[in-house]
Each structure stands twice: as C-alpha cells, then as structure tokens.
Design brief:
This protein has 409 residues and is α/β, with parallel strands linked by helices. The chain has helices at residues 49-54, 59-65, 69-79, 103-110, 131-147, 161-164, 205-213, 265-274, 306-323, 342-361, and strands at residues 25-31, 44-46, 85-91, 117-121, 154-158, 182-185, 187-188, 253-254, 276-277, 279-280, 289-290, 367-371, 387-391.
Length: 409
C-alpha cells in the first residue's frame, strides 16, 4: 500500500482509431562537454530566447559546437511567444535510449513542476541506426516516470536521415513499436541547412514543440488554425509554420532529403500509415503545416494521437489529486449488506465530477461519466474501483465534398 494512494489504469478501445489546459515543455539538447555550455542535467526555465542566450546558447555557439540548440529554441519562441520552455542539456554522446538510465537527467526532469512534454535534439544516433531503439528507449523513460506519477504526454524525437534512408517504401514502421507516448518528427526546414556536414540533421523538433505549446492539449499538431492565437498573430486566418519576414519554412522537406513537393499522394499516405510526422502544404493554399500528431502505436489505438494522451494524462492528474485526500479515510458501510454506503459513493462521485468539469468547459472532452460499483465491500484492503469514461471530440482530418451542377435549386 505505502504511498501509491490512487492507481490509474489506462483503458483502451473506447474510441477506435479515431480551468486552462497547460503544456509544460522541456527541450533536451545534446552538447559537446568540451565547450562552454549550461550545467549538464539541470533544468533552466526560459521565458524568451534571450534567456537562452544569457546561458551561452547563441547562433554563434551553434556554429562553434556544431549544434542547432539555439535554432530549436528560437523556433519554440517564434511559434509560441507567450509560453515558456525549460532547457536541460546532456552530453551529446548520449543516445535517446541512454536517457532512461541517467539518474541525474531523470532528477532534472522531475524538478520541473508539471512537466508533460519533452523534445529531444542533438543526441547521438542509435547503434546500427535503428530508430526502434530510440523510440522504445523514450517510451521506457515515460513508463518509468509514470510509475512515480509523473505523466508525460509526448516525447518528440528526431527521425534522422541515417535512420530512414531515402526510399519511403522502406522506412521503418513506427506503428508496430507500441510506444504511444513517443512521436517521430522527420519534417525539416530546408532553409536551415546545417553549415557543416558534422551537424546533426536539422529535424524540426523545436518547431513541433512550439506548435504544441501554442495549442490547447486537445488540439491536433497538424491543425491549420488554432483556437487561441498569440497577440502578434491574432489577425492571421490560420497558423502556419511559414514566416516570410524571418525566412523560416519557405519550403519543406524530409530528413531523408526528399522535398515535400517531390512526394506523391501515395508517399504522403504511406508516411501517415507508418506514423511519421512531417511538414507540407495544401495545393493552391499558401504556407506549410505539420501533417498530424501521430504516435508510435497502431492506428486502432485510442492513444494514436498526441492530444489523446494529453487528455488522458490531464484527467489522470486531476483524479489522482482529487482522491488522494480521501486516502485512509473512513469508508462507511451499509449495515444490511456490508457494501460501501451510498453516501460515500455520492461523496466520491461528486468530488471527481466537480474536478473534471473544467476539462469539459475547456473543450478537452465533450463529456465524461463516472461509475462506482456499489457492490464493493466497505471493509477491504483491496483498492476501491472507480470507472471514469471520457467522451473525446473528433478531429477533421479531411473533407470530402460532393460538388456538381443542377438545372434548378
């Protein structure tokens, strides 16, 4: 029993593929330990790009260290200027799969209040250029943190060119990896070409992190518009990656070297089927956007999109915080049956219902339902079971329009 308190069991199969919400994000960046850099395995809170520059993360340090840390952070703040991000730097010889075993790194993550979103850049390629090692390693990190009730919605990792080759038909299938909290970004801004071949691929994790931070947790990373734009972009009709003034995302490509314009409709469908997140545009409509918010699990899973994991995690945090005050409190018994008394059930139901209502008001869920089986023994050392079901809103992935002529209306 100890201090576990409230155990949340994750249910699947309810969707079939198909207060303000807050993201707390950290960018994990590999750095060369032989050069000047912020202290390793320590979380630094950044409110604007100037905070990173004060730590020595500058365009010049990117060139000197053959890294793109400043670029990624500048994209976070360009796309989500009214939020904050944390920075944790690690030895760049570390692989994504190593981080789950680095105690100092995990302590740094745990020191960030409410951390729920992680981006990883500039780390060494996995052995044998096997992307599954990175994906599964990131999921094991998430699973380990969840055991301590630190719920991570998403880990964004770089799907580097070395992992993929240049033939989309032979890209690894991420859907088969059963890693529902990990997403692989392969979109690149060709305008940010690394000035040295020793640079890591400039895979746009910083852009993806910024695009997540600017959205509510129930919004899809690939949505063409967002529900609440930053003040500087209130007048925009959409929320694109493209920014002509700064020269960002004037074109889009893949880490494999393919340009978006070279991708056929079949290529694009294949990338979605395999679970990759890339960037592209709509024919006849200006600007570039991310493709979707896929995670590395099968399409039929309830948790195949980042937003679904974020919604589940938010509900889990709320329910846990709500019920912990009731731990080891008296459970009234119905003297006729020995089961939980109805007044106790009403109390627990009311507490959880009141706590979850803000998720409905914020648009994170369409509705929810709570059921507590009254035929549970009041005197028991077993956990009391509370069933909570969330009704999720859908996402428009495509429209199919029937358009034609008629002789009259």
């Amino acid at each position: 029993m100890a201090f576990a308190g409230v155990q949340i069991n994750k249910l699947d199969g309810g969707l079939g593929g198909g207060e303000v919400s807050v993201r707390v994000a950290v960018l994990v960046a590999g750095v060369d330990t032989g050069s000047g850099h912020p202290e390793l395995n320590k979380a630094f809170e950044l409110l604007q790009i100037e905070d990173a520059e004060a730590l020595g993360i500058t365009p010049e340090s990117d060139v000197a260290n053959k890294a793109l840390t400043h670029y990624h952070l500048s994209e976070v703040f360009r796309l989500s200027p009214e939020t904050r991000v944390y920075l944790v730097v690690v030895d760049r010889t570390s692989k994504v799969s190593d981080l789950k075993n680095l105690a100092a790194f995990i302590t740094a993550l745990r020191s960030i209040p409410g951390v729920n979103t992680v981006g990883m850049v500039g780390l060494e390629d996995e052995a044998g250029n096997d992307i599954s090692l990175a994906v599964q390693g990131a999921q094991l990190l998430v699973d380990g943190l969840a055991e301590d009730h630190v719920y991570i919605d998403a880990v964004l990792i770089q799907g580097r060119g070395a992992y993929l080759g240049n033939n989309i038909a032979t890209f690894p299938d991420l859907r088969a990896l059963d890693c529902e909290n990990v997403s692989v970004i392969i979109g690149c801004d060709p305008g940010v070409a690394a000035p040295d071949p020793d640079y890591a691929d400039p895979v746009a994790v910083g852009s993806a992190l910024g695009m997540l931070l600017v959205r509510s947790i129930h919004e899809n990373l690939g949505s063409v518009d967002i529900e609440a734009k930053p003040r500087s972009r209130k007048a925009d009709k959409d929320y694109m990656l493209t920014d002509v003034k700064t020269g960002r995302w004037l074109s889009a490509g893949l880490s494999s070297g393919n340009s978006f314009e070279s991708l056929s409709a079949s290529d694009q469908r294949r990338l979605d089927e395999l679970g990759y997140i890339y960037a592209g545009g709509f024919s006849g409509y200006g600007g570039y956007f991310f493709s979707n918010s896929h995670t590395c699990t099968e399409e039929g899973s309830d948790y195949c999109f980042i937003e679904r994991n974020a919604i589940w995690n938010r509900a889990a945090r709320i329910i846990r915080e709500t019920l912990i005050p009731r731990i080891r409190s008296k459970v009234q018994a119905d003297p006729a049956t020995g089961y939980i008394k109805s007044t106790t059930i009403t109390d627990w139901d009311g507490r959880v219902r009141k706590a979850l209502e803000p998720m409905k008001s914020a648009g994170d869920v369409a509705d929810f339902d709570i059921y507590i089986d009254p035929k549970q023994a009041a005197v028991s050392t077993r956990p009391f079971n509370v069933k909570v079901r969330l009704v999720a809103d859908g996402v428009v992935h495509e429209f199919e329009i029937d358009l034609g002529f008629t002789k009259s209306i």
